[in-house]
Amino acid sequence: MRTILLLVTSNIFMTIAWYWHLKKTGFPLWKAILISWCIALVEYCLMVPANRSGYLQGWSGFQLKIVQEVITLLVFCVFAVLYLKEPLRWNYLISFCLILGAVYFAFKK
Q: What angle do CA 104, 95, 43 make, to 5 degrees?
């Protein structure tokens, strides 16, 4: 559970770091990059312990990466709908379900 909590928190920071500036088009790019790097540092400080914790609990590197991608998509969906005001269309949901299938197969013994 610790691994999942750290992965979710780190992905929230990374999504903000990568996409917060999209609605700030008048903002100078160099400032957006500098601010994003500062936000990404927090993400990195959470992602590294998340991966180490999961690995020590017996997850493989592949399993950690696949779970991280699903969490990234979940966090991004919320961000895109609430902050970017973009619709969540059916084809995005189908794509997401296919990725959930990847998680199932990654953890299948």
A: 75
pLDDT tens, position by position, 8-49: 999 999 999 999 999 888 889 999 999 999 999 999 999 999
Q: What is the pTM of this model?
A: 0.85
- Report the alpha-carbon distance of residue 83 to residue 17 in Å, rounded: 13
| Angle formed at CA 76 by CA 75 and CA 79, multiple of 5 degrees | 90
Instruction: Give pLDDT tens digits for 38-55.
Output: 999 999 999 999 999 999
**How many Å apart are CA 96 and CA 90, to the nearest integer?**
10
Can you tell me the distance from the alpha carbon of 35 to that of 80, in angstroms, rounded to the nearest whole number?
19
Could you tell me the end-to-end alpha-carbon distance of the chain, in angstroms, rounded to an integer? Answer: 20
